[in-house]
């Protein structure tokens, strides 16, 4: 077991100093049928404890129907202003004329390759309009999200976008995913719990040896709150068509997350699986006093 200094988040959430807490969040709910089905399976049969919804995507309505049918699922809003698949794209919920700095020449969100260009020109006021539209679209269905994070953007991509997201989280009574320990320190000083270690983005892991890496990472999980941003999906013709070069990143995630090995290691190591509800509760209680 890896060692770490004492955990402020453990204290804020009421866990022992030496507890090893882990959120396994399945990103990209709503992206496709393959993602929706794989994420639901990983939540019901595996060790995934939370998911986040890509509201602008074509299969978001299907994902929201799943959430209504399974109210026990904890989910957040995966704030989406990047359209990262070349031939399978999405755009804003907001009328394009109101968010022109977020939209490319074809009328969609900017591609992954053009993120630097997007970040250089995206207006914060227009981002707030679109972020609020995505959150409000979920709330309008009477679903109750727990937290906010971002699609393809590390801590929102810019300091002011991160600060905007924290402001919106406090306004809507939600928590926020933080990608690294240092960024979260200021929030923890306000009494707001965050994950304390670098978020593991499983999509960036080498497929070769990934299952061995997962097992080792669980056994070496440090004290405090960690988070994995996982990307499980079913291996189907659909995902082969729109991600011909990266579909295995999704299927290998699913393979491990529903495996007996994953559950056994978590039990053997005494790891506590969490969703974002405990964090959200503290953010709601303390967030309004820090605005």
Description:
The protein is of the alpha/beta class and 291 residues long. The chain has one domain: TIM Barrel (Alpha-Beta Barrel). The chain is built from 12 helices and 8 strands. Strands 1, 2, 3, 4, 5, 6, 7 and 8 form an 8-stranded parallel sheet that branches. Strand 2, helix 3 and strand 3 form a beta-alpha-beta unit. It is globular. The termini are far apart. The model has no long low-confidence stretch (mean pLDDT 95).
Q: Tally the helices: what do you get? A: 12
**CATH-assigned homologous superfamily:** Glycoside hydrolase/deacetylase
The level-1 CATH class: Alpha Beta
| SS class | alpha/beta
What is the typical, i.e. mean, pLDDT? 95
Rounded to the nearest angstrom, the distance between the terminal CA atoms is 38 Å
The radius of gyration over CA amounts to 18 Å
- The fold-level CATH name is TIM Barrel
Order of helices and strands: HEHEHEHHEHEHEHEHHHEH
CATH architectural name: Alpha-Beta Barrel
- According to DSSP, the number of beta strands is 8
Give the domain tally: 1
Low-pLDDT residue spans: none
For the report, how would you describe the main beta sheet? 8 strands, parallel
> Strand content of the residues, in percent?
5-15%
């Amino acid at each position: 077991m890896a060692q770490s200094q004492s955990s402020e988040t453990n204290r804020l959430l009421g866990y022992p100093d030496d507890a090893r807490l882990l959120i396994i969040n399945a990103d990209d709910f709503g992206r496709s049928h393959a993602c929706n089905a794989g994420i639901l399976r990983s939540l019901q049969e595996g060790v995934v404890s939370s998911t986040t919804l890509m509201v602008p995507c074509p299969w978001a309505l299907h994902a929201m129907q799943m959430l209504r049918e399974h109210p026990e699922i904890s989910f957040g809003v995966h704030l989406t202003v990047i359209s990262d698949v070349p031939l399978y794209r999405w755009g804003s919920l907001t009328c394009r004329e109101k968010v022109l700095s977020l939209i490319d020449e074809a009328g969609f969100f900017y591609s992954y390759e053009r993120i630097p260009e997007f970040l250089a020109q995206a207006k914060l006021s227009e981002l707030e309009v679109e972020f609020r539209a995505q959150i409000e679209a979920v709330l309008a269905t009477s679903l109750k999200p727990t937290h906010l994070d971002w699609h393809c953007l590390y801590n929102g991509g810019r300091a002011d976008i991160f600060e905007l997201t924290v402001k919106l989280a406090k306004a809507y009574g939600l928590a926020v995913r933080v990608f690294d320990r240092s960024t979260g320190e200021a929030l923890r000083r306000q009494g707001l719990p965050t994950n304390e270690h670098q978020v593991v983005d499983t999509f960036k892991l080498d497929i070769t040896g990934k299952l061995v890496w997962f097992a080792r990472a669980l056994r070496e999980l440090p004290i405090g709150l960690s988070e994995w941003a996982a990307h499980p999906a079913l291996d189907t013709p659909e995902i082969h068509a729109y991600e011909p070069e990266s579909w295995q990143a999704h299927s290998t995630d699913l393979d491990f997350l529903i495996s007996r090995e994953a559950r056994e290691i978590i039990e053997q190591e005494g790891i506590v699986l969490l969703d974002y509800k405990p964090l959200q509760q503290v953010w709601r209680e303390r967030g309004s006093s820090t605005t």
